[in-house]
Amino acid sequence: MITRWKIFLLMIMIGKNGKSKNADNSVILLIDSDFDLSKIKTIKKDFHCDKIISFDYDSHKNLHLENTKHEISDEFITQEETNEIQNHLYTFSKWYDEKSLQKFFMVEGLNIGQLLQEQFIDYMIKFLKKFFEFKKIYEKFPDALFVSSGILYEISTIFSSNIQQVGINKVDNYDFVHDKVRVDVNVGKNRINFSLSSSKYKKIKHFSEKFTQSLFEPKISSNSHNVLLVELSTEIYQKLLDESRNHDINLIQFGIRRPAIWNMETFKIIKNSKCGIVTPDSLIDSELKIKIQEQKNLITKQISDLYQQDEILSKYFSYEGYSFWLAIKPIIQKLFEKRIEQIARDIQTIKALFQKITIDTAIISSEIGITEQIVINESKKCGVKLALLQHGVYYDTKEAKEKNLSQGLYPIKSDKFLIWGRVSENYLKNIDIIEPKKLKIIGHPKYDSWKSVSTDNDSGAVLLALTGPEHMVIQGHQISNIKKFENYLEEICKAVSAMKKKLIIKTHPSFHVFDFTDLIKKNSSDIEVISGGSIMELINSCDIIVATNHTTAILESYLLQRPVICLPIIDYNLGIPTLFDFNSDMNIPIEKFQVTLEKLMRDNNFKNQIIRKQNQFVENYLANHGSSSKKLIEYIKTM
Questions:
Q1: Rg for the chain, CA atoms, rounded
Q2: What is the pLDDT of residues 217-228, one digit of tens each?
Q3: N or C, which end of the chain has less CB nearby within 10 Å?
Q4: Cα-based torsion angle of the residue sequence 134, 137, 143, 146 in order, rounded to the nearest 10 degrees
Q5: What's the rounded Cα separation, in Å, for the pair 81 and 89?
Q6: How far is CA 621 from CA 101, 111, 494, 629, in A?
């Protein structure tokens, strides 16, 4: 709230003519998505603002809708500086490894800071973008009065004393990664999705798993190889579960985030397999509840002691003498406050799991998740072998090393990395932090049932695999890039409509994805937008696939004999991955899209030529197609 005395003080600064006495005569209003735009007219009038700068896409969009003239913060930094921000993000995200801080994080052999690295990065990438952009703005307008609220006000206090706060910092309203859970439900022939708070989702999961645990108690035998499947999707790994019936092996599903059964289809998959299920709640008794509370108290005390290390933390979280620790401290406190109880529960639950069941091998799909990190820790203690599965087509460039590492995609702690084929193997052998002996080509069980289909029947449909701006990379948050993405999307919609073809858009099922539905429907109400369900069925129903980013859907389209047009919209400074490099003719700018689309539709020779080339890539990238489930089980038994 703007009080009269604040306005009075401002008027003294401004003087009778309403102009600022500072050197550049400017009053700059800084706005992000937390800013209350309903007050903007009053603030502009009271503070005589000369310039408005928007710091994120939502605030830019709302200002644009209100026809409010403004600049965007992206314009104040160069591409080189953008890349520098990303590098600093990776450095700051490893604060838990700082020697003087490690003792506050270590619990049961686990680093609590590392457990939360993914969630820390998700917040820090947005903070650092604003921090570096404001630094450049301040350097350009050192004498300006900066009017702001929330985190932008906290950042501006780091650099300038000529500041004015409007509103309050909404720390309590910040949503971290995994605060919400996306749920997809089939209603008749339609598929709907909605979000639930993490707490509500866990209550529903707890209730449903009471039923599944009693039906699918694992049959543990010392004579069989017992394999723990950690947070793996029942649908995606159906062929692996089916294949287990033909082997002397016990598969055990365990998921804290993900239930093994969530609909009739997954129930049937589990029922028809040899797979057992262990649910987290089945492991918790009165004795374990006491241990969980003791663990929570211990972590709480250690993190409380961590907060007292302001001098060390202020030095660590600084750039060119400007410390931002006190600006991010309330958010970091909020993150730990929200997660400590769950971390304590997860640690003790997984310890109980390893004490209750004899496990020979644990299989994970990343090394970054909280469940996965705790399982890794317990596996090391208990002598359990760890196998990391490649679960997608990664950026296989040297520039993407830190990105991949931050997402837990490399086998840093795993004993073996079960990869898809020769392309991945050749790339990973050149990564200095990966031991080549850890690599084993297996393929992927998901694709064992995927078969090549005829393209003779012309459906006339185009599938757009819409992967929005990447949230773990700074370029994915830049307003200019998101605007560019919207422009490309409009051009794609117009081009397909101009050819009288049906357009189906498959969006990525993630909370991090920008919702472009309104923009799509504005172009044509006939465009079908689908967020969940099987992409295999969608690919099979269309003639041509269009991809807006590096995505596994490209390989999947190759596998199903569909030609793919790649329109890489945003340059993430990650180099050119093999997926784009091998077929550069189809990796095109938007200006060539309609011409290329028309050629694919009308020239069968061109279309078949593209498909043959794609087949060559699949041959090199995906080994053991049709038999990878069997290969995986046979190899796991030898570990």
A1: 27
A2: 988 887 889 999
A3: N
A4: -50
A5: 12
A6: 42, 35, 34, 17
